[in-house]
Write a structure and sequence with these properties.
Length: about 350
């Protein structure tokens, strides 16, 4: 997530027509290193904002696959400025590994005058300090399939070969209408554009609820990439998309199936323990000044329901397939208390 149209910074949100930029830096880190970036423990650093749903996919995947020792983590301030994501959460305002104040510095080391703005997630080559990729659609797929030699023992198969065609079809629908749909509604510049996006969003959510009423997970009986991609939007829905983005036909908590499904995933190790509601709310309400010029961050919603029983296990399913749950959150990567229910 960043300045999607490369426009006039934060004040342009809601005032300029929204267009999701394709990732400009689409190199892949692979087992055979065919793009010049071989999988190698300790070589790369994953830069995320816990506010960003696209970056949150990588956070969840990294936890589920047990890549914490192999791929180090940098977490930015949720409130970026027009120069890009900032490392102001770190001592002296610099990332302790990369030594930079702004993520844009890693982009500049790779290429100057690049299009599309500075976005997260971003994977940076530590030795050179250069950005490798900001391809949010591909990063998690590669973590699941190219980084297997570095997966923890018991890591789940998040992109099983036999299910890939179905996963791709589901995630494409989710991306168009849900992941990207909330932004098309929230950043709409006219009534017709907003209504079209909002209508498509809730139509898709109702279709997904129908699917999930019969099965615990989106594809097969285990957690896959499809669940990760839907979860990162659902977990933000009532906190920011319902009010801030005017996606308000109903709240997530008012949809029995989706609310139970989201709670089930939230309570699964690797999902909720990566979510920081404080970062989420402060980012959306303070950064998007074209939509919320006051910068006031709402007190609600009540988060206590996220830990309530969900009863989804009654549908069966094996969350991690033949694998196991990830262990405790790595020391230093815990979400602060103010960001949790």
């Amino acid at each position: 997530m960043g300045r999607d149209d490369g426009g006039d910074g934060n004040s342009s949100y809601g005032r300029k027509k929204f267009k999701r930029s394709k990732a400009h830096f689409a190199d892949r880190i692979t087992a055979d290193g065919r793009d010049g970036w071989p999988v190698e423990a300790g070589r790369y650093r994953l830069v995320v904002s816990r506010a960003c749903p696209w970056a949150s996919r990588a956070l969840v995947s990294r936890r589920l696959l047990g890549l914490e020792d192999a791929l180090s983590l940098a977490v930015t301030d949720p409130v970026q400025d027009d120069r890009s994501w900032r490392f102001t959460l770190d001592p002296d305002g610099r990332d302790p590994v990369l030594g930079i104040r702004y993520l844009s510095e890693a982009y500049d080391r790779r290429e100057t005058e690049y299009p599309g703005g500075v976005s997260v997630p971003a994977v940076v080559d530590v030795p050179s300090g250069k950005l490798v990729t900001n391809d949010y659609q591909q990063i998690t797929l590669d973590l699941a399939t190219e980084w297997t030699a570095l997966h923890r023992e018991g890591a789940p198969d998040l992109y099983p070969r036999a299910r890939r065609e179905e996963i791709d079809a589901v995630t494409d629908d989710v991306f168009q209408d849900v992941n990207n749909g909330v932004y098309r509604a929230g950043f709409a510049t006219d009534q017709e554009e907003y209504e079209a996006a909002c209508t498509a969003l809730f139509r898709r959510l109702e279709l997904l609820a129908g699917r999930l009423e019969r099965q615990r997970y989106l594809v097969g009986d285990t957690i896959t990439e499809a669940d990760i991609r839907l979860f990162t939007t659902l977990v933000r829905f009532d906190a920011v998309y319902h009010g801030h983005f005017k996606c308000n036909r109903w709240k997530l908590t008012e949809n029995r199936v989706l609310w139970a499904y989201a709670r089930d995933l939230y309570q699964t190790p690797g999902f909720g323990d990566t979510v920081d509601f404080d970062h989420i709310k402060r980012h959306y309400y303070r950064v998007h000044t074209g939509i919320n010029p006051s910068g006031i961050v709402p007190l609600g919603p009540d988060l206590s329901g996220w830990t309530a029983p969900h009863h989804r296990a009654e549908l069966g399913g094996r969350p991690f397939g033949d694998g196991t749950a990830p262990g405790p959150v790595r020391a230093g990567e815990e979400v602060p208390a103010r960001g949790r229910p």
